[in-house]
Amino acid sequence: MIDQKVKRLDEIKGWLVDLDGTLYVSDSAVPGATDFIKWLRAGQRHYRFVSNTSTLTRRQIAEHSEALGLQIRPEEIFTAASAVAQLLRSFEGVKCYFQVTENMLEEFQGIEISETNPDYVVIGDMGRAMNYELINRAFQFVMGGAELIALQKGKFFRGADGLRIDAGAFVEALEYASGKQAKIIGKPYRQFFNLAVHDIRVEAGERWLSGDFAFVGDDVEADIRGAADAGLVGILVRTGKYNDSYSEHHGIVPDWTFETVKELVESLR
Ligand SMILES: [Mg+2]
After folding, report:
1. How confident is the model at residue 98, as a pLDDT?
2. The whole model's pTM is what?
3. Among the four residues 5, 91, 121, 191, which has the most C-beta atoms within 10 Å?
């Protein structure tokens, strides 16, 4: 059941704000990004900055944001990895095997690691380090009864030397070989939005409905459709990934659309 969505922007209780393409594009902050962050803080509002990266920790994202002049703290950031860590910490005594880059292990601190009989296999993005032995190891654990969790299921992306196969193709290979479905936590999967909303509810100590939350993003498919599927208010900004024809082609109608976060924050004042 989808909760009734709020009718006015000033009624929104919790804000989920995409980072890449929404608050910054490549290496510059979007106009109004600083003002929007100030607005969120000034009103003691409840919010999370959201990133779909599976290769950077929240600390690294905060450092990158800081370099662009955006003051964002690691604990204000929500990623697929932080969502998975939160989920795993809620299951008492589980043992996990993490197939993620070295830096990402920082996100999973405090969770017991098993290299022999894990309850969960968490597969992230190994990039160039991925090889047969690694994927086969994950496969053996899954066949031995472990559940498979994926931080993302991207097919491919554009690198400096052309298109490159993404981590999702390896997740699919594991699903194909084992006959088991991975639980995928990244955007646009509903669980990602649900976990982010849960995080804010816990912080606020409130039982707000999903329709009391808004997602601000530049990606029609991953952000706006994902938010709508999870019952959230979708606010599209025409920066970053946004492009007119793509939006029309997908027939997705956001609840609100703004040129940039600058117009959004102006409408909120
Ligand atoms: Mg984005």
Report:
1. 98
2. 0.91
3. 121
